[in-house]
């Protein structure tokens, strides 16, 4: 991809022509039906945000045991497929394009939610409570996956990818970040195996690599991205070898000719970012740290991410609170603030589909004066 710092300039992602460089990051919002099927409210939410260059749909589980919390989306039944197809058709009609993130929670799950004992690389429980239909409960000890379990889960990811394409998605993102199952295999504190999937980094990256390879075989490598979050401690993850772990993973993935690699909390000033950018030959999506959620702050972060070698920029909270984010950045108009974090996951329209667009507010000219000029 031709390097630029103008995030509003046209871009490409493989065979997809994108109107600009801004990607809507996957945002789990707990608005699905109890069985994981997307709802009417979700159709509205995604349709409101079709000006994103690419929408990466929220984390969807490839099997029942992979569900993390109540009302999380899924993609392992025909009902799920039909529900997601309603979303993709509405987004496409609005001029948008979507990938779907595939996420297995691993030990970040609970029998009160799924009726099943969570699975993980090793029987190491999460040292936190987990939200369930009965409220927050202590995490349970997960069942260590057998090699047969691993192979079945790889197959489930591939089947979920096929369903996603059948549902109208342009491709899928394999979630190997944020302390979920694939990340649990990567991290030494959650992976204590002594077989071919544990121990040295070359064996700990194997599960993510096999899942990605199977998904690429199922739908084509140009439809597949992978998300990673080096050094992220969310969900009890501890990495004491980040500097060698991720180069090993990139080495396993780099020759697959994937659509992209998505780097969470990308910080261009870190050695791990510079190493990944140097080692990864394809499209890199950078999800920057955003300490300043004003128009000027988001603009600086997006332009800086491109200047540091990223090809596309993924934004989460700005798209969450601003259905017309791209228009606001183009005009230099102020951004809606993100409301109470509690509203992100409570269900219903409040804090989800009721964020106003510029057309619903006083004139944009008067609002620009409140936030100052656009910063390039």
Molecular structure report:
This protein is of the alpha/beta class and 376 residues long. The chain has one domain (11-371): Aldolase class I (TIM Barrel). It is built from 13 helices and 14 strands. The chain has helices at residues 40-47, 78-93, 111-114, 147-166, 181-186, 201-204, 206-219, 242-253, 271-279, 295-307, 317-321, 325-331, 364-371, and strands spanning 11-13, 16-18, 22-24, 54-60, 98-102, 119-120, 129-132, 135-138, 143-144, 171-176, 224-228, 260-266, 284-288, 312-315. An eight-stranded parallel β-barrel has the order 3-4-5-10-11-12-13-14, surrounded by four helices. The protein has a two-stranded antiparallel sheet with strand order 1-2. A two-stranded parallel sheet has the order 6-9. The longest helix has 20 residues, at 147-166. The protein is globular. It starts with 10 loop residues before the first strand and ends in a 5-residue tail after the last helix. 46% of the residues are buried.
């Amino acid at each position: 991809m031709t390097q630029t710092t103008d995030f509003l300039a046209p871009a490409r992602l493989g065979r997809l022509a994108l109107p600009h460089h801004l990607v809507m990051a996957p945002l789990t919002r707990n608005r699905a039906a109890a069985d994981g099927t997307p709802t009417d409210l979700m159709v509205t939410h995604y349709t409101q945000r079709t000006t994103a260059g690419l929408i990466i749909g929220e984390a969807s589980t490839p099997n029942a045991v992979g569900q993390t919390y109540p009302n999380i989306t899924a993609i392992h039944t025909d009902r799920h497929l039909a529900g997601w197809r309603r979303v993709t058709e509405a987004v496409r009609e609005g001029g948008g394009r979507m990938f779907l993130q595939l996420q297995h929670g691993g030990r970040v799950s609970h029998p009160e939610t799924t009726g099943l004992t969570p699975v993980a690389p090793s029987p190491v429980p999460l040292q936190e409570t987990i939200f369930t239909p009965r409220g927050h409960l202590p995490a349970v000890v997960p069942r260590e996956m057998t090699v047969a379990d691993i192979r079945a889960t790889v197959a489930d990811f591939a089947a979920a990818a096929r369903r996603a394409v059948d549902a109208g998605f342009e491709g899928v993102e394999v979630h190997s970040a944020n302390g979920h199952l694939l990340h649990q295999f990567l991290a030494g504190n959650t992976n204590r195996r002594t077989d071919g999937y544990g121990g040295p980094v070359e064996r700990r990256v194997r599960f993510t690599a096999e899942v990605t390879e199977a998904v690429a075989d199922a739908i084509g490598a140009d439809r597949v991205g992978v998300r990673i979050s080096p050094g992220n401690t969310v969900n009890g993850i501890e990495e004491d070898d980040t500097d060698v772990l991720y180069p090993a993973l990139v080495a396993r993935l780099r020759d697959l000719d994937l659509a992209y690699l998505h780097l969470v909390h990308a910080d261009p000033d870190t050695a791990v970012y510079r190493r990944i950018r140097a080692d990864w030959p394809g499209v890199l999506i950078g999800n920057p740290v955003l300490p300043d959620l004003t128009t000027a702050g988001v603009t600086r972060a997006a332009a800086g991410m491109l200047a540091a070698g990223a090809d596309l920029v993924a934004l989460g909270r700005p798209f969450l609170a601003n259905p017309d984010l791209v228009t606001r950045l183009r005009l230099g108009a102020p951004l809606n603030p993100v409301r109470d974090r509690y509203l992100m996951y409570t269900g219903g329209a409040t804090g989800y589909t009721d964020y106003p667009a510029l057309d619903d507010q006083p004139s944009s000219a008067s609002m620009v004066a409140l936030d100052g000029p656009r910063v390039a």
